[in-house]
Write a structure and sequence with these properties.
Low-confidence stretches: none
Shape: elongated
Structural class: mainly alpha
Number of strands: 0
Oligomer: single chain
Strand content: under 5%
Number of domains: 1
Helix content: 55-70%
Order of helices and strands: HHH
């Protein structure tokens, strides 16, 4: 990947973070795509093999989807899963 392509990828990733008021599913999709792009870029910068690139892309997508689905949810639960009141300034 060239430096120009990497810069375009990073700029696109950061511009997605500016979007708000998405559903948790939309946040998970955006997070998955962003994580996959970041994983692939990191593996490519490290000159990893094709197997390493695939593993980094899949790992980045999984982490990005998990983080994205919880972003902005603002739901508090007790350890047993029942809803709980959120603390002030949460």
């Amino acid at each position: 990947m060239t430096k120009k392509m990497l810069m375009i990828l990073c700029a696109g990733t950061f511009s997605l973070a500016a979007c708000a008021d998405y559903t948790p599913n939309q946040n998970a999709a955006i997070g998955g795509l962003t994580g996959a792009a970041a994983g692939l870029a990191a593996a490519d910068l490290a000159d990893g093999s094709d197997t390493t690139k695939v593993a980094a892309t899949l790992g980045g997508a999984a982490v990005g989807a998990a983080v994205g689905s919880n972003t902005g949810a603002r739901r508090c639960t007790y350890a047993d899963g029942t809803p709980a009141p959120c603390p002030p300034r949460y």
